[in-house]
UniProtKB/TrEMBL annotation:
Keywords: Membrane, Transmembrane, Transmembrane helix. This is YbbR-like domain-containing protein. Gene3D superfamilies: 2.170.120.30, YbbR-like domain (2.170.120.40). The lineage of its organism: Bacteria, Pseudomonadati, Bacteroidota, Bacteroidia, Bacteroidales. The chain crosses the membrane at residues 23-42. The keyword Ribonucleoprotein does not apply. It comes from Segatella copri. InterPro entries: c-di-AMP_regulator, YbbR. It holds the Pfam family YbbR.
């Protein structure tokens, strides 16, 4: 008990010493001037922006809202600072509510809330001294449908480049299709949906990313996010031996080439090479060329190749040949 009294006495002596008395007086007048400044500021007329939530009520259970109302209205008001503080901290402002049935147009599947109705609800929450300067956004509308939907494929949008010696083998989405809710007219015109632009450079390894579907006004897309898988592959140079075929031959003539098969070289992804067969290529000799331009060797032509190969070319452009009559 004695120690507590000693501490209190020491604190009292410290606070009321000559130097600290002056400091306490300074703090008192500083606080007094701060209060005076605050009172002057709050008594001035100024502008401030407030955000008010917006709610659409009474939506039927079988209706799907495909385009939401703006969820917030931004208002700018002018009044004295005391009043603005009341709006900010006094619980004066409440959400704006609009009944679905009052604004829904069943034929078009849209609803439009007039700005006058928005202003009326806002003004009803303001004091008479407050001036409403602006309301944003300028348009309050929504879209709905009673179950009309359509499944459409997801389409890639963007640009992907691979590192040197690689190529883009395949891209896929999971799920590959999404359900779109909208009115019948919009659904009839819709063939697919796109992802938000996806860009990547110098890709070497397989990647998986969650990507958002690009929003379409008046349509609800489910799901709004899909899984994108991108598969690069190593490019390799390969070759296959392809039989030489004669075309435009007379019925009584036979063409024999030496060799009877030639190598076709090409570039392809390593994982795709096992799917390649010689029968997918076509190497020909045109008899009409031989008849018009006689020569010791015949010219070969590469007429068709699989779509999965690139830079396909013949290892030999000419070969020896023999024409025989049957």
């Amino acid at each position: 008990m004695h120690s507590i009294k000693s501490i209190l006495k020491a604190v009292r002596n410290f606070l009321f010493s000559g130097l600290n008395k002056e400091f306490l007086i300074f703090l008192f007048f500083l606080a007094l001037s701060g209060i005076f400044w605050l009172m002057m500021t709050l008594n001035e007329t100024t502008e401030r922006e407030f955000n008010i939530p917006v709610q659409l009520t009474g939506v039927p259970r079988n209706a799907v809202i495909t385009g939401e109302l703006p969820d917030t209205v931004h208002i700018t008001v002018r009044d004295k600072g005391f009043t603005l503080v009341t709006y900010a901290y006094g619980g004066k402002i409440h959400p704006l509510t609009f009944r679905f049935a009052n604004y829904a147009d069943e034929e078009t599947g849209t609803g439009q809330i007039p700005m006058a109705d928005v202003q009326k609800q806002v003004a009803s929450q303001l004091y008479g001294s407050t001036k409403l300067i602006s309301i944003k956004p300028a348009k309050f509308d929504f879209f709905f449908t009673y179950g009309s939907s359509k499944r459409v494929p997801v389409v890639f949008r963007g640009r992907i480049t691979t590192s040197k010696s690689y190529y883009l083998a395949h891209t896929e989405f999971l799920p590959s299709t999404v359900t779109v809710y909208a009115n019948k007219k919009q659904l009839d015109q819709l063939e697919s949906v796109e992802i938000e632009p996806f860009n990547m450079r110098n890709l070497q390894d397989t990647i998986h990313r969650n990507v958002p579907i690009k929003k379409i006004r008046g349509m609800k897309i489910v799901p709004q996010m899909v899984r994108l898988a991108v598969y690069p592959d190593v490019l390799t140079e390969e070759s296959v031996d392809v039989p030489v075929t004669a075309i435009n031959m007379p019925d009584n003539m036979v063409l024999r080439t030496f060799p009877s098969k030639v190598a076709v070289r090409f570039t392809i992804g390593a994982s795709l090479f096992r799917t390649i067969k010689p029968s997918q290529f076509k190497v020909v000799v045109d008899y009409n060329d031989l008849a018009n331009n006689p020569s010791d060797k015949c010219k070969l032509q590469l007429r068709s190749v699989p779509r999965s190969v690139s830079k396909a070319h013949l290892e030999l452009e000419t070969v020896d040949y023999l024409l025989e009559q049957q």
